[in-house]
User: What shape does this take?
Amino acid sequence: MHVLLALMAATVVAMALQRNLFSVVVLFGIYSFLMATVLVALDAVDVAMTEAAVGAGVSTVLLLGALQLTGSREAKPLHRPLLPLALAVAVGGVLAYGSLGLPAFSDPQAPIHTHVAPRYLAEAVRETGVPNVVTAVLASYRGYDTLGETIVVFTAGAGVIALLRRRRKGRDR
Amino acid sequence: MRNDIILRLVAKLLVPFMLLFALYVQFHGDFGPGGGFQAGVIAAAGIVFYALVFGLAAGQRLVPDRLVEVMLAAGVLLYAGVGMAGFALGGNYLDYFVLHADPVHGQHRGIFWVEAGVALTVAGVMLKLFYLFAGRGRHREDE
Amino acid sequence: MNTAAYLGYWFTIFLMVGGLYILIARGNLLKKLIGLAVFQTSVYLLYVAPGKLIGGTAPIVAEGFTRYSNPLPHVLILTAIVVGVATLALGLAITVRIREAYGTVEEDEILERDRADGE
Assistant: This one.
């Protein structure tokens, strides 16, 4: 699994350095697939399926569509981006320092495993009759959040329609 | 791409399987990984594949623009409607156990319709996004 | 041994920082959006990783399994993935409109045109 993570890190570095945007989009597809594989290794099968379908499928198609409409080479930067690099490294350092306070990997006594999750795992089949606990939580226990998220997807669609719809008779807007 | 016989044949063979797989993922989401989002995206991907091989106009003949717009709104209304049904039958908003005499069966019904609404909206939005991006700026349309 | 436990987190933070760098250091709007998508994807990893129990299995209740990985992060991240693609789609639509209005998607050139128009 560390091999997969190292491959993903290499992909991100290549994305930062590449200037041909088509290669960057392909690298993004590769990154999404690697992420889906890592998620399967972490036992998150629902999330992996969604990430593979959405990240490597729809996102890549939309990026290619937008790429065709804009342009496919990135201009050479005028000055070396030292300040952003320093800022990014500083943010990374602060995050790494903060991560030392997180519980160690796969500690069963971590708060994430002792608060609400055992109740959901124990009661989901009895209360909802659905063995897939993720679906039960998503659609039943936390159904209100899923309603909000469906509305977000709808709003995004409506927003893109408002931005990109053509007037009648193909008049350019 | 329409003139390439291998692509045409493979597309014609694969698109029904893709849609069938989307339905499988949707309904089997209770017992295995899956559910509304994945099913919606896979269904949209099937139609996008068809439109990529046979041309955007053929894709829009198959799934018209108006149908897609109705789909994406109908999914949200279906979800909210299930909530209102819970309201009307005596519980709180989005309570599923009032939908049937047996609360567990009520949960089944609620989850089924809710996931169907999510799949409708997600499939509609993804397909509409593809239509908008692919149809923009190309004045020379390939028929 | 202690470092091995945190190596996963540090890889995730490297991916996050990589995405952040692409977002703030490159001028091309399309590449910025891709950097944002990379950043979001690495945050999914950050959320799902603590939910894993070694020796556990996917959170689908079945015969013969007693240890399950935590399902709560999965639920949050499912929503986050779909919201992420919605954000990406809106950003791409705005980029396409900017391209049609300014003729370019490079940030420096857009600011130049605005400055020149403002005078």
In short: Chain A touches chain C through 88 residues (CB under 8 Å). Residues 169-173 of chain A have pLDDT under 50 and may be disordered. Chain A has eight helices and no strands. The CA atoms of residues 90 and 103 of chain A lie 23 Å apart.
